[in-house]
Design a protein that fits this description.
By secondary structure, the protein is α+β, with helices and mostly antiparallel strands. Helix content is about 30%, strand content about 30%. Strands 5-4-1-2-3-6 form a 6-stranded mixed sheet, sandwiched between helices. Strand 4 and strand 5 form a beta hairpin. The longest helix is centred in the first third of the chain and has 15 residues.
Length: about 140
């Protein structure tokens, strides 16, 4: 458990999200679903004609901290919409997480950005992943 208030954790999540991106003070959308002991974050950055999907590893500890703070009523989903220096956070406690996670995420992205295409990074080889330290 954490002793920090929720608003402080959400502020840290917003600040870390902007640091992950390539454009400072740009438009970002973070969508996260939680299950016991598991988080499923997706982070998107608006880069004009498309959205870039960004890695969320720097957010992991903050998201777990936020989720543990929410106990005994755990968070089902969390959305963070950043536009420049302003952000809005939304919590949903009534999400059935077993099925449909990707569909809910895509619906949330579409509601925010319309039909902009999403560009995912190319998959990396196992050798590149080992070199980057992804496996310990």
């Amino acid at each position: 458990m954490t002793d920090r208030p929720l608003h402080e954790i959400v502020n840290d999540i917003a600040a870390t999200t902007v640091k992950i991106g390539e454009i400072n003070l740009g438009k970002y959308f973070l969508y996260v679903e939680f299950a016991p002991g598991v988080i499923g974050p997706d982070l998107f950055q608006d880069v004009g004609d498309h959205l870039s999907w960004l890695k969320t590893r720097p957010l992991t500890d903050l998201l777990f901290e936020m989720n543990y703070l929410a106990d005994p009523r755990p968070i089902g989903a969390f959305a963070l919409d950043i536009d420049g220096e302003q952000f809005k956070a939304a919590f949903n406690y009534d999400v059935e997480l077993l099925e449909g996670t990707e569909e809910r995420m895509l619906a949330a992205v579409k509601a925010r950005f319309g039909d902009k295409p999403i560009v995912y990074p190319p998959p990396r080889s196992m050798q590149e992943r080992f070199a980057a330290g992804e496996f310990g």
